[in-house]
Amino acid sequence: MTNCWDMRERLGPYVDDELSPIEAERIRSHLAECGRCRGDVAAIRELGATIAQESTPDVPPTLWSSIEQRLLKTPTSPSLAVPRHHWYRPWSIAAILAIAVGFGGVMTFTRMNENAAQASTIDFGVILDALPLDPQKAFSRFLTLYGGVEMPPEQARSFARTLDFEIPAMLPGGFQRMNVYGLRFGSSPGVAVRYERSGEFLAAIFHPTVHPEQFGTHQDYPCVIGDHHGHAVEVGEWRLVHVTDPTTCHCILSRLDETELPAVLIAVAPAKSSERTSQHHRH
Predict the structure, then answer these.
(1) Who contacts 96 (Cβ-Cβ below 8 Å, separation ≥6)?
(2) In the chain, where do the E strands start and end?
(3) Cα(144)–Cα(134) distance, integer angstroms
């Protein structure tokens, strides 16, 4: 996951000291080995200093109409989206527009709009399309798309404190937790976990319920897994199951059947489990 493309989205927040200590150290380690990214960091800092020294320039009167026309013509496919440059945020809108004009501003704002459109949905198609070839690489593609950063389990819970989920070290059936990642769906946090059992892969993904899900060319259908009601997508022997509570969608990607999957969902979806227990006591 430590490559220039993955780093690019976080260089701005790194310059602005907005990253967690673990993320910042990850960036520093990469910069020590990558001259290209060091140059990008230097350019961001130089641009920030230049903007801070300049007076606010006038905005060309035709700029907004040009932006609007370009946005209306631009596809919203996630594959065309480009990560937002977070280093725009501290300065005035007028200064941003002036810099945008100097560096092809219409395209810059178009790309920012594409990323916003991507963030409004969660694209599971990047996993599902590649599942038959290599499930591990398919999962890695999803992590890259949403800026996955590996972190300890405790930090993941703090990072996504608005979500209700569990990531036990061992799932029912003997799946051992291997890696935990923090994700970003637009401005909302998410978490993904990689599990393995004797080489067999299982992934758990948790995201806010407010984000619609896309599955590419694949169709989802309602399902009941044990006592859990949700929906699922099947690709060959693989199944991506989604179970939702008021705050969190719990997604399990696995080859498990109806005998094993219910216990796994109970382990990762605590609110759903307690809801079921409460209903049982009422009866």
Answers:
(1) 88
(2) 122-123, 149-150, 170-171, 175-185, 188-197, 200-208, 213-214, 220-225, 228-235, 238-244, 248-254
(3) 15
Cα radius of gyration rounded to whole Å, the chain: 21
pLDDT in tens, 41-100: 887 887 767 666 655 556 666 666 666 666 665 554 444 444 444 434 443 444 444 444
pLDDT digits (tens, 9 = 90+) for 185-218: 988 999 999 999 999 999 999 999 988 899 988 9
In whole angstroms, give the CA distance from residue 182 to residue 170.
Answer: 19
59 token code pair: 């905005």
Q: Are strands 175-185 and 149-150 parallel, antiparallel or unpaired?
A: antiparallel
54 is written with which tokens? Answer: 């300049």
Q: How far apart are CA 1 and CA 264, in angstroms?
A: 27
Cβ burial, residue 234 (10 Å; 0-12/13-18/19+): middle
Read off the tokens for 221.
């259908």
Q: Which domains does the chain have, with CATH numbers?
A: 4-119 (no CATH), 122-282 (3.30.200.100)
Q: Using 50, 70 and 90 to split pLDDT, how confident is the model at 225?
A: confident
Per DSSP, 19 falls in state: S
pTM of the shown model: 0.58
